[in-house]
Each structure stands twice: as structure tokens, then as C-alpha cells.
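#structure-requests
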Amino acid sequence: MRFASGILTFFKAPDFSHASIIFLMRLRSAVASSPSVSATVIEGTLRQVIARTERVSETEQRDAMIRDVDVPISVEPADLIEARAVAHIAAAADAPGTVEYWKSAPYLLSFLRDYKLGQRLDHLKDAPSEALTNAIRAAKSAQINIEDVENYRPVPENNGRMRALKTIAFQDDMAKRLWMPPSLPYFGPRVSASKLLVFSQWAMVPDAIAALLSYDSERAMGMNGLNHRYSDAFRKQSQPLSFRRTKSRLTGLRALPLVIPSPTLAAAADPLEIFRSRAPLPDAAAMRAQVRARVKDHAHSILGRLRAVQRGGVTGRHFTGTRENEVKDPDADRITNWDWACAASLDVAHAPYQSWLARGRLLSDIIRDDGQESWHDHVSALRDAANADHLIGQPDNDSLLDHLTDLALGSPATCALRALHRIAPDLGYDDPAILNAAARIGMAFRGLFNQPESQALLRSASDEVYWQSVLDHCASHDLQSVMDEYVHILVEAEGLLDAAPTQAVGSIAAVIDDALSLKPAQIEIKQYRIKRGQIDIQPAIRMRGRFATRLLQGGQEDGVVQRTETVRTAFNSPFRPFVLASTSVGQEGLDFHPYCHRIVHWNLPSNPVDLEQREGRVHRYKNHAVRLNLASRYAHTLHRPGPIADPWQNLFQTAHRQAERPGDLEPFWLLDGDVCIERYALSLPYSREATLLGWLKRSVALYRLAFGQPRQDDLLSFLDGIDTADDAIDLRDLQISLRPEAKG
């Protein structure tokens, strides 16, 4: 009892530091003399002042929802050839051994940072020895072949860890995706894909991961089929979705429905309501059929306003000519406006929408000179066409229905409008604030689909004109469900639960704009060559990191500043990057859990605390694994009749009411199911790290037992040295549980 009273003194004493010393001394003495009795005393006393629930005890398998996944790591002959080449260079340069470098990344010379070997080569470059020049000449395998990159030829990984990482990162067809599959698909099977968070001790590893995985992703998306070199891909990129004026012609009229939301179509054909009202739909075609049926009446109302293009064109709001079905104008496609104005012609019946469109200065605060120079002219053209007596063009009924279906299901702006309305139901679909927010998101998607990789992907998969390919891609890849999930996450992530609805939708739109606007990392690739007896060290090329990127100390990129917060925002979105590689800078204080339940230890940390810190980055509130399990277990509850605003809020509320354990860990932090936090340790066979993971996991178990205790290393050492057979001690008796007792 004297010890127990000391605990309370520890927490209540005015001189906290003095009291803590006395308490810690008594604690160590008590544990050493009678561990199991002391645990009971400590537990009973601390419960008076502390409540703490350990995750391990809250999962059925007592695994805290963490699962080890074994991935075979191979060592190939090409790996050893590169290792030998690098070793010869290091020996000739009198540099330290390079075994750890070689194990960590391929193409060591290409990604060589300010390591000792790099410093030595820079020091010796003007007067290298013959042995060093010969070693560099022979080390072609240790450098990326620049011509291979420029011509989009395959670049071998030559590293067991990199090969394994590529296998993990590219599963579920992720190399060719523009966004993550939704956790709650409104049609088709669920895909439990995940982003990857990679931790390494070596600063060159994030460079290599970002460059090589992104390069292979570009090839998978079809960039290798284009007639330009790698370095020219962005300099010569076109912008098919642009709002410019060329020779008095507005170039982006048909892209307007991607950016301007349609309140009418948003309300008429909501994929969520279709999902709730029917048995699971097998694929996108089934969803399209349901949407098509719901927009049929709107198509009928549009048909009565259509007029064919005729010689003589259009004068003001009146169609001129005599034969309605005759198309004779050679520039008929330029005059036709039914495809880009039909949705707006329905929406102008809403007075708030009409007023919003009539202002004519939409998105003035974010318009940039990158293909948006004549944006306001396009908006004015849309306003005039939507308010005209007739729409120009005469598609057949099926074509019109298909087009309205594409717009309702695939317009990024209209999908954003529904998602924002779910978290701000007090704002009507035609409220100017929510229309502005949805249009801003639509404009951000324009940037996504203007990226060279996106263009290569969509154009290789379809013969349609590009804006139609965009609509089809969004509809086929369940963009509505993706946006509903993402917006739900952002409400809490951005602290908007108590914000006014107009502020909430505006803030969310700004975050999504930021996430979609992240520029690719620029990774400088060095090249070491022998010229006239000297070592010529030059930056040979900059490789892009969009599929994968890196998190650097201070966020300083080579030539491009990527703030840590900007990278975090993009990684915590459903959009690219899908892989984030970091050193210790990312293992504390930053959360990366919204779309990542796979963590990769490129190198294992040396102590259990760092292991816990790393994995804690993805094991957070409403993490990705939790949401996947939540959707799997409770999606059927959404099929009940009655209105639902935010489906994810409804799912979490239902799961919380049915939770098997008291408290709030379930379902917000933990939820049993098929998906867990997946831990990958990429250790080479027969290396020291192959046995390190077992020690770390044992240490973590003891660390949890010794939660919050002072001198944790001492206590761990003491517990690790206990012979439970000889001392008749059950370590379970030492566990301190401060879980709040159930009420009643």
C-alpha cells in the first residue's frame, strides 16, 4: 500500500519532478521483488487517474489488426554483378565497404547522394588512379542507361528489394490506375488495394523507389507507345482539355460538362441511391443501365428543343433554314452545341443555378494561364447556349440517352456535387456555394486528365474523342463512390464537423484541388564517365516521381519545392502518388492512414519503439483497413428504406451501435475482418535482418507490457532475462490493463 500511495503522490505532487523520481525508484524496486503482485497493485491504483485501452486486447486474434506478409526476396546474378562493380570502385577510391548500399538500392552510382563513396569520387575526379578509371568504365551495370530511359525501354531493377516492392505496389493493376478503388463500390467486386508507405534508413532509397516505380508505371500506362523521348514528355505535352481561343474559336466547349456541375443530373440519377435500392450490381454496364432509365424523361424534354445544323448557321437564338434533318455546313461540329449545353439547358430552370451561371466570373480566384485563358468566354458561351430557344444538333434518341448517362455518371464536377451535398445536406444542389466548390473540383480533375500519363492511358484504351474517354473512365471506375468516401474523410481530417456548410464545402474543394495539383518529384540521375583521364560527374537526366514519390527532410526537392504538407495531402487522397518512400522523417508525427494499410520496412529499425512509430502512421482513426472491413460487414444495412445523407457516417454509426466491445476503439480504430494492416519486411535471405524482425516483435510485445514505464530499456532487459519455467512467472500476470470498466 505504501507503493500504491506513492503512485498517487506521483500524479498529485506540486513538485512533479521530485515526486516522479521517488515513484520511479519504488516502482523498479517493487517490480523486481514481486512482479505479479506489483502489477495488480499498479493496475488498481493507476485506474484512479488513467484510462488506457490497448489495441491488442480489442481484436479477436489479439493481433491489433496487424498481419505479417512474407514476400520472397531473390538475389539474381545481375544483382551480384552490380555489387562486384561497385565494390571495385569503392576499393579503388579507398571508400568504406558498399555492401549495405548495394543491398538497399540498384544503380548505386545513379542515385549516389553525399555518401562517403560519392565524396571520395568527387575528391579524386581530377586525378583518379588507373584502377579507379578502369573500375568506373567497367561499372555500366551500376548506372542507369540513359538512352534506355529516353526511349522508354525496360530498366531492370537489379535489386531483390526493388523487385519485391514492384510486385507489391503493382498488384491490383495499380500501375495503371488514376485513383484508388473505393472501399464501398457501388457496382462490381470490391478490390482491397492499398497505397504503400515505405521506410528506409538510407536517403538514396526514396529516390530510387520514386524514380524506378514511376518510370515503370508510365510504361504500363502507354507512354512507351508515344513518339517522343522521356525528357520531352512534359515539355511537348498537349492539353486536350483546355479553355483557349484559337482563331476566334473556343477550343474547350465540350470539356465544360467535366467542370460545370449539373444539379438536375445529380438529383435524377444518384449511383448511391441506385446501389441502395437494388441487389448488388455486377459491373459498370449494369449501373449505366439504371442511370439511363432515370434520365429518360430529361432526354425526352431535350429532344423537343433540338434543331439540325443547316447551311446559313445560327442567327441569335433562332435557327434558320428550311429542312430540319439536313446537315450541310462543313463546320457543323463547331456549330453543334447539344452535347456540351444539354445539361445546362436543364439546369437553368433552377433560379439559383441560372443566377450563378449568369455571374460569368466563376472560379476567378483560381484560374491560371495554363490552358484556362479564355475560361470566362467559355462560361459565357454556355450561358447563352443553355438559355437559347433551341439546341443545335440532332442526335438520335439512343445517342442522347447515352450522353446524358455519361454526364450523370462520369462528370467529375457532378460527382463532386453529390459528394459535397452528402456532407452538407442543408445546401441544395443548386446553391452557389456548393456549385462553386464542385466546379473547383471539376477544374482540378481537368488537370489530372491533362497529364501525359493520363492521356496515354485513356487514348490507348479507347478510340473515342478525349473528353468522351474521360467521361467513360470516370463512370467505369466508380468515381462517385470514390468521391463520397474521400469527402467523408476530409470533413473530420480538416476539422470541419462544426463548420458552416458553405465553409465546409469550400475548404474540402480546396484540399482536393491541392491533392490533384501535386507536381511530380524530380529525381536527379547522376552519370559517372571517364573523359580524358578524369572522372566527369554530370546530372544526366531528371526522372519523374508521380506514381511514387519521396518525403524528404524539409521537403526540398531538386529544383522543385514539395512541401511535406502538400505531399501528405496528396498521399492521403485517393489519387497519386500510390507509394510514399521516406526515411525517419516520416515515422513520427505524420499520419498516412486514409488510403494506406500496407507498410513496407525496407530496412528494419534497430529498436521496437521505432517499429511502433512507423506502423502507427497507418494504424489510425478510421484507417483504410477499418473502412474496408466496415463496408464488407455493414454495406447491406444501407439497403434499408429511408433517406441517407452520408453513407459512411451511417455505416460507422451502425457498426458502433452493434460493437461487441464497449468504448470507441471499435469500429473507429479497430474492426475485425478480412483486411488488416499489412507489414512487409524486405530482408534479404541469410542477412542479419532476416532474424531481426523476430527479435523486434518480441521486444514490441514486452514494450507493450511495459507501457509508459520509465527506463523502458532496463525493464525490457529485466523481463527478457526472466526464465519463466524456473521462476514460475506467467508474463500475462505482469500485463497492466487500464481499460475503462464497463458501466453498469
